[in-house]
Amino acid sequence: MGCGEPVQVNPLATSLVDTSPVHPGGPVADHMLFVFNWVLAASLVLGIFTVVMLLYSMFRFRRKSDDDEPSQFHGNTRLELFWTAVPLAVFMSLFGLTVSQMGFINDAPASTAANPVMNVTVIGQQFSWTFDYQGQKTASGNDVQSFTTLYVPANVPVNLQVVSTDPPCVIKPIITSGSPDVATRAAALRQKVNSGTSIADAISDEGCGVNHSFYVPSLAGQVNAIPGQTNHLWLEARLGHYYGQCTELCGTGHATMLLEVVAMPQAQFDKWLQQQVTG
Ligand SMILES: [Cu+2]
After folding, report:
1. What's the CATH fold of domain 27-63+74-106?
2. What is the pLDDT of residue 204?
3. pLDDT tens string 96-110
4. Residue 255 Cα to ligand 1 middle (Å)
5. What is the pLDDT of residues 147-171, one digit of tens each?
6. What superfamily would CATH give domain 109-278?
């Protein structure tokens, strides 16, 4: 994108919407909120307990007059064991709680005939999101795609492969520059592309690339879209609209890289898909 070109404003940028992760819209977010609530509760209880004990000690053992020598203590084995064992037990409990939920949060359920999992490739690019519905071909033979809005059937697991196709940004300056080192790298890059490597992968090998980050707080965690790499995330949405955005500063149009997930009843989704397939 060149200087002076207007940034296309995503219409979602104009609406004020609920994107809170504490209003979960599906089971992945439910599990994450469960862990969050326990961590929050433990933090509050321990934080308040610590502050109360601190205030108590400050007032109880303070210097009461100019001549008064405050009470002096040195070492207390029982107390030291207590403040080592209790935090350790709390941390180990929270660690266990997190581990117990990680499998569910990280791994999409296996696709079966009774419970099929939908596969979608999420493509981040400056400055928009494209959703590619794998295995759903249009009349022209391309995969069905949607832009900015990801359409999903409600209560169906969706397995996302998150990629970035950025950037064709530096290929031109590298190739036209005169320095011998740059010329050698440009030749190697051209050779890679000629032998079948995608431009994004070849440039990514060169160490150039723009990351994006896919995040719909009400549905799941966040995952980076990295040039030359495929990252995974899964979500399942109850009926409704969920809003998200790119959370990796990726250039001048970063703030407009918003997205929406629309979860529809299965029949309505099938109808939408059919419309895309037949054009
Ligand atoms: Cu961004």
Report:
1. Helix Hairpins (1.10.287)
2. 63
3. 999 999 999 999 999
4. 7
5. 999 999 999 999 999 998 875 444 4
6. Cupredoxins -  blue copper proteins (2.60.40.420)
Q: Name the residue ranges covered by the structural domains of the chain.
A: 27-63+74-106, 109-278
Q: Give distance in angstroms: CA of 211 to centre of ligand 1.
A: 7
Distance 246 CA to ligand 1 centre (A): 4
**Amino acid, res. 132:** D
Q: Ligand 1 centre from 249 Cα, in Å?
A: 4
Q: How far is the CA of 10 from the centre of ligand 1 (A)?
A: 13
> What distance in angstroms lies between residue 23's CA and the mean position of ligand 1's atoms?
24
HEC-encoded secondary structure of the chain: CCCCCCCCCCHHHHCCCCCCCCCCCCHHHHHHHHHHHHHHHHHHHHHHHHHHHHHHHHHHCCCCCCCCCCCCCCCCHHHHHHHHHHHHHHHHHHHHHHHHHHHHHHCCCCCCCCCCCEEEEEEEECCEEEEEEEEEECCCCCEEEEECEEEEECCCCEEEEEEECCCCCCHHHHHHCCCHHHHHHHHHHHHHHHCCCCHHHHHHHCCCCCCEEEECCCCCCEEEECECCCEEEEECCCCEEEEEEECCCCCCCHHHCEEEEEEECHHHHHHHHHHHHHC
Residue 4: what pLDDT?
46
Question: Residue 42 pLDDT more than 80?
Answer: yes
